[in-house]
Write a structure and sequence with these properties.
Layout lengths: L2 E5 L6 E3 L6 E7 L10 E8 L3 E2 L7 E8 L3 E5 L2 E2 L9 E4 L4 E5 L4 E8 L4 E8 L2 E6 L3 E6 L4 E5 L5 E3 L4 E5 L5 E6 L2 E8 L1
Antiparallel strand pairs: 1-17, 2-3, 3-4, 4-11, 5-10, 6-9, 6-11, 7-8, 7-10, 12-19, 13-18, 14-17, 14-19, 15-16, 15-18
């Protein structure tokens, strides 16, 4: 049975990084507690200084700068392009990763998922967009003061800055309309 709820940014729990170097606001996840047992997880991290990332063996990561000038990652000894706001970048969770900030503290948005359990599609949208999704889990994360989301013929839901709409149990082709700047994540069990 399809169900959805709206997660408000003001209610996200804060938890320490796996490596102890900072903290994260956890938006949502599929299962598990702490930093174990999840198949996918969404979070927002505050990075105040350049340094190392936690490793997540068996997971794929997609990171996007939300606020601040940006950063460059060094992944297994290789530097990435500069990662600027709303420019997603994917890498293996088991890689050795560190970041160099490009002009001060940043906030970033993270999708971590187990590719042996889920396939994932992440895209940033702006303006009015209409699409169809057959993903079993659909997440719409707002990066604007107001984003409107319509699922099928349901009433519109309004998201504030960093709020997230989470739909679970989709088993058909769902029409989705969004208005505003947001990230849409589609997850399907493999």
């Amino acid at each position: 049975m399809t169900q959805f709820n709206v997660l408000r940014a003001a209610n996200y729990p804060r938890m320490p990084w796996k490596n102890g170097g900072g903290s994260t606001e956890e938006i949502t996840r599929d299962a598990g507690t702490g930093l174990d047992g999840f198949g996918w997880r969404l979070s927002i991290a505050d990075i105040g200084e350049s340094g190392g990332f936690s490793t997540f063996a068996g997971y794929q990561r997609v990171i996007t700068v939300l606020q601040g000038a940006g950063m460059t990652l060094t992944i297994d000894g290789q530097d990435t392009r500069p990662l600027l706001p709303l420019d997603p970048f994917a890498f293996s969770g088991e890689s050795q990763v560190s970041c160099t900030l490009l002009g001060g503290a940043i906030r970033d948005f993270n999708l971590i998922y187990a590719p042996d359990r889920y396939s994932a599609r992440l895209q940033w949208l702006e303006g009015e967009q209409r699409f169809f999704s057959s993903a079993s889990t659909l997440l719409v994360f707002s990066v604007a003061l107001q984003v409107q989301v319509e699922l099928g013929d349901g009433a519109p839901e309004v998201l504030g800055l960093h709020d997230c709409l989470q739909l679970e149990g989709n088993s058909g082709l769902l029409e989705v309309a969004v208005a505003g700047q947001c990230c849409v994540i589609e997850l399907t069990v493999v």
